[in-house]
Each structure stands twice: as structure tokens, then as C-alpha cells.
Amino acid sequence: MHELDETDLEILSLLAEDGRRPFSDIGEAVGLSGPAVSDRVTRLQEAGVIKRFTIDVDRTQLRAGVPVLVQVELSAGSVETVRERVRDADGVEHVFVTAEGDVWFYARAEAQNVRSWVAGLLADVDVEGYAVTLIDDVEWTPSIEGLEFALTCAECGNTVDSEGETARIDGDVYHFCCPSCLDRFETRYRRLEEGA
Question: Residues in domain HTH asnC-type (predicted)?
């Protein structure tokens, strides 16, 4: 298993700032050629570190409504239902689940219909209550600098370090903390394939 090095982290940081930045520009910043950066990005994608490239739309430019933060107190067992419903709703930009099992989300809603919009989202769900806060200003600066990256074992969920294993099984890349986890995973995978 190849660990992420300083150059990988720099590349991730530059891509987090601008996912459309040319590899040649990134290469100049990190001391590599454009094709070398491309190879590293491909490896990071295959390893599952980079899942997708997205855009960050400034919704204020689109006049998409007023920004609100909604805090929803939930009864046990409602978290997944609410998270999925909120995540798929128009205008919702970020969804958070707290350690207490509540769902908070940041969204833009029509000013005159905020209460009815939230009530519609939460209809037929066991909700203990919710609070809507109007947001005056938002600064969203996701950062990867200074963070420790860790891959998790596909078998046991432990952190994969330099002693770990990586395997491509039927076209998908999996990471394992040790050879025995890889063996167990492959054995179970093959059994499931044979039973299908």
C-alpha cells in the first residue's frame, strides 16, 4: 500500500481550491510534469481518495433564495430517512448529522415560504422539533491541509498504513490493513460470486 506523500497532499490541496486547474499548473507548483501529476491523480482516484470532481456554485449569484440553517431534533430511527430526504431536496447545500443523532442542514429557500418548505420536507417523519435560523453571511472553506488522510480496511474497518495491502477485485480497488483481511475478503467475495 503506497501512503500519501507530501506531493499527493499538495496536489489534493490545489485540486480542492480549483478542481479544473490544469495538471501543468499543478506540476509547476509541486515540481512535477503535467503527465506525472495526471498519473498521481489517476492513482488517487483508483485508490478511492478522490471520488469525484465537483463545482462550487455561488447560489447568491443565482438568487436562489435566503440562506437558512435548519436544526432538526429527531426521535431514534429517523436519522437516515431525514438525511436522505433532505440531501435530495432542492436548495439544500450541506447536510450534517450530529453526535446526538440530529440532522442539521444549510439550504436556500424562498423567503416567504421557509416554514412550509421545511414542514413539507419533514412531513410524515417522527420529529421532536426543529429550529430555522436565517444566515447573514457564509464562508465555506473546505481544507485538506494539515489533515491526516487514512484509508480504511474493506474487511474490518481499521486504518490502512504502509504495511497494508491493496487489491483490484473485478475492476474495483480495495484496501486492507493486513494480508489476513485481504484473504478473508477475497474468500467471502468468491463464495458470494459462486452462490449468485
Answer: 4-67
